[in-house]
Amino acid sequence: MKLVKAIVRPNKVDEVRDALEKLNVGGMTVTEVRGHGRQKGHTAIYRGKEYDVTLLPKICIDVVVTNNVVEDVIQAIIRAARTGEIGDGRVFVLPVEQSYNIRTGEQDAS
Amino acid sequence: MARAARDEASGGLADARARRTQLAAALAATRREFALEARQGRGGREAQARYAARMDEVVQQLVEAARVHSSRPLVVCALGGYGRRTLCLHSDIDLMILFESSIGRDEERFVNAVLQPLWDLQLVVGHQVRELADFDDLETGNTEFLLSALDARPIAGDEQLFARLEKRVATVVSEDHARSIDALLELIEQRHVQFNGTIYQLEPDIKNAPGSLRDIAAIRYLQTLGGERQEGERARSAGPVLEAEDFLLQIRGILHAEGGRDANILTHELQERVADALGYAGDTIRQRVEALMGAYFRQARTIARELTRAQRAARLPVEPTPPTPVGRHFEIAADGIRFADPATAGTRPSLWPELFRLALADGCPVSEQALDCIEQNLAQYSADDFAGTEAERQQIRTLFYPRPGLYARLSEMHDCGLLNKIVPEFAAVHCRVIRDFHHKYTVDEHTLLTIRGLETLWNPPTPGRKRFGALLEELRSPEVLTLALLFHDIGKAADADHAQESVRMARTALDRLEITADARQTIEFLVRNHLAMSQVAFRRDLDDPHVVAQFAHLVGTEELLKQLCLLTLVDVEAVSSTILTPWKEELLWRLYVETYNHLTLGYGDELVPQDPAGLAVVIAGRPDDISESELTEFLAGLPRRYLALFGLASIYRHVRLARGIRRDEVHAFLENHDEVWELTIVTLDKPYLFSNVAGVLSYFGMDIHRGQAMTTPGGLVLDVFEFSDEQGFLRQNPGATQEITRMLDRVVAGWVDVPGLLRGRESSVLFRRRQPEPPRLHFDNEHSQKYTVLEIVADDAPGLLHRISRVVSEQGCDLDLALIATEGRKAIDVLHLTKAGKKLVEHDRNSLKHGLERVLEAADETR
Predict the structure, then answer these.
(1) Among B356, B541, B770, B860, which is least packed, fewest CB within 10 Å?
(2) pTM for this structure?
(3) What ipTM goes with this model?
(4) Residue of A nearest to B587 (CA)
């Protein structure tokens, strides 16, 4: 199993969710986050005064998937979240050792 | 050990085991019986008292058996809900074991012998083991312990010892009565904060939330701590409080029976089971749940109101002070403002909104006397009885000006029924439950919480909120925003598109209150589009200029943008206490800034559409004296923003003003709205024009608040200034308006030297100010395709606009468009400039910047 962690633009969350649902990805965790990558924020001007917006609002989507669908999930996220502009985000893939259902106590198949 | 003794001991153990088995079986039977009764809606006070009595028997048996370990005087007491005989199926069994003297090994064995069997019975036991000496130095700081001692009820043991305990607790309470009450009030406050201070929870915690069982206990504690002074109150409130308590206990019984644990949250799912168990009527489950929740909110409101009474009574000084008269009809007493003569006030409903207005002005609550009076007499009046005259309507309109205390006063109006009476459209969402994942409160309470959110922006709690607070300070009519908030969700009474339905329902209220056309247009816009900004901010790509442009077209003006931004902020915040994260605030602010910049920096590029379809409304509404060609000719070349800024009546007036205008002539129109004057001039462009007109207004002592200057490519100039008559020139001189227009004629014709007129005024000591802030100048050469946009933020000063615009003209620049605003003490001017028809090059910008800095610094020195 892998944990796929995607940092995407806030307006792309619905498209990513739809894309993952089409792959029958069962569940996901969505978190409001702020940060920057190479984009490193930007300078905004309000009433003649400049101020730095260094930490930009993004959405972090976490999904845990079986190894055989990881590549499809990654590509689906990239296709759904891409605009081609700087600031589209990142996808990280991490190994998951074990996973359990809290209600039933059952361990998920890896 | 001898065999006989071992046999005897094992026989004793066997007996003990048999007793415990018997005890467990009996208790289990009692619990099954209780659960059955509770599921049938009969788990209220009587059933809980029976269960408590059964538990008493269990504890008594255990105490008796444990007595073999210690013969010292002791008493076992029930505490908390168990002490009050309201023991529910899965409630904690709270016990205090009190020994007269110090606790030794034997007493420890006694304690163990009592508690261990209770734990074996799978009961959750909360226990305190105390010596009587612990109460010698009992401090009121330990409020929870003190309160639990007030609830103590002896179950087994030495009653004389219990009497000594009661006496010591009473001594502590009477010696430090005020501190005990303060500590209790603080505990109540802390608990209520966790629930956002409102009873109107969609899934209420019936034990802990405001209007819950803990509040009933708090009422009784306050009345107990109040002693004899509270006897009358205790007797008066006993009936309604008992009824509310029985209702909540019945619900709690069902929650425990259904949940199989100490469950106290009346979730949506459990509301269906409770509604059926308690026999609420309705063809559908939704109707039955609504009936249940209606009853719940009525009871919770009773409890909340009684708690407020008890809290106010607890704070009253020992020696009552006579009330202070306020006018003929009101007086301020210790518990708030009230009617001087309730009998007369009951027959004069126009006094009621006045009472709340005074309460807001004086920052005090409305007394129970007044609320009772209103509640008792309300039924005989209708909405029209409160809005029959312009003075009454004005009174109601001004009530909604956002300021500290507004939420509290509106909540009082709502609870006593007055708000629904004055605005019956709001009654449609009274206690309305809309089930969704995010909303935590009923629709009416959500609405009032939005108004509380707005009110708190006067004193923003965080730096992030300060920027929104600044927007509120800049609004021209913040009460219009409050009214929009009041109406934004009333359409949720129906199942249709609630925003449209809210607009439809609001119209009757706006008619009744005779809201002005401008305010009405704003309210309808805000209600109709109250979801638009959150949808764009949280779901669209704010880096996309088209998204921002589209949203800017929707709002049209900075004023509407600010209002919609604030409405969105407080609307999201009032959904639940956790939903408005700093993340969402940041996105909302970003959309605000991007849209503000689009509206103020880029509007010169978008002109009024030339096709008749785009002007259909303006053309269709034109009066007979204006032809279509005259209208379209006038509009040609004006920024598209013009149509958003001005209503049809103003547009047609401008067309007439522009008729036959010739070089060196000015056509002017001056009118006033309340304290604000508006000067509209139409003329043909010439150097120094804007500067000279601004100078004339300064010469007559006018304080310019806002302004719009627009120039068409054909050279037609339309300037509109809003100003206040600070020195009373217009108010005090009958021929003043003619004098101003005559001066404008002479200035535009070039016969008057405006700088000469103003010399002397600008250095007057009258205008000196302390601690000036450095001015801010920012050129934007990118945002607009046609113009260099200059933003100036500086301390406001008389003649400032004249001097700024004069420098612009001296530098050979054309001021084609201008947005003038004064916000607090700041002048915020956005000027769209060209030089010889083109944007300013770097050299021109630097030169203009230096010139302006010199003028602005000189202005600083004169202050």
Answers:
(1) B770
(2) 0.84
(3) 0.84
(4) A57
